[in-house]
Write a structure and sequence with these properties.
globular
Length: 180
């Protein structure tokens, strides 16, 4: 046990690195599966955001620092490998704003994972809308904000509920492997 604590102080443990790699791979696969569903949203920019389930798990099991690294790596890899590199700024803005808010809420409040995920979903859409308005140099896109807030809340709620269900299982599996 003493040796494990020393390794944690020096840097990332092997178990942390392995879980980061698995979560990154899972997030990439989920992103490609979601993209292949060809769901046409009623408002531009609305997505299910299924890969955010992985980000919530990373945040709650590994912490904010690792969740941010996984998020950035996922966005870059999916953007490049899908041939849609032009979407990287939107995804980065949404993902990083979402994670920043969730990290702050997780540290500073007693909100549930479901509530924090709702805020994350809302902030993700706000981040993407800000980038869209900057890119097209037109603030009239703010008209989409109410629909994006509702969609962010609904998708955040769904991700939060699933996270609440799977986090105990994922955490138990991770703890079993990391304490060997």
């Amino acid at each position: 046990m003493k040796k494990e604590k020393q390794n944690k102080k020096k840097g990332m443990s092997v178990a942390d690195l392995a879980l980061c790699a698995v979560l990154l791979a899972l997030a990439i696969v989920i992103s490609f599966i979601e993209a292949s569903l060809n769901i046409t949203p009623p408002v531009p920019g609305i997505k299910l955001g299924l890969a955010n389930l992985v980000m919530v798990c990373a945040l709650y099991i590994l912490g904010g620092k690792y969740a941010v690294v996984i998020s950035i790596a996922r966005v870059l890899m999916v953007g490049i490998f899908s041939g849609h590199a032009e979407m990287i700024p939107y995804s980065l803005a949404g993902g990083l704003l979402s994670l920043a808010v969730m990290i702050l809420l997780k540290r500073g409040t007693r909100l549930s994972v479901v509530a924090i995920s709702c805020f994350g979903g809302i902030c993700h859409n706000i981040g993407q809308l800000i980038v869209a308005m900057l890119v097209v140099e037109n603030t009239s896109m703010v008209i989409y904000l109410p629909a994006l807030l509702i969609a962010g809340f609904i998708t955040g709620l769904a991700i939060g509920i699933v996270s609440r269900l799977i986090l105990p299982v994922v955490r138990k599996s991770y703890n079993a492997v990391s304490h060997r």
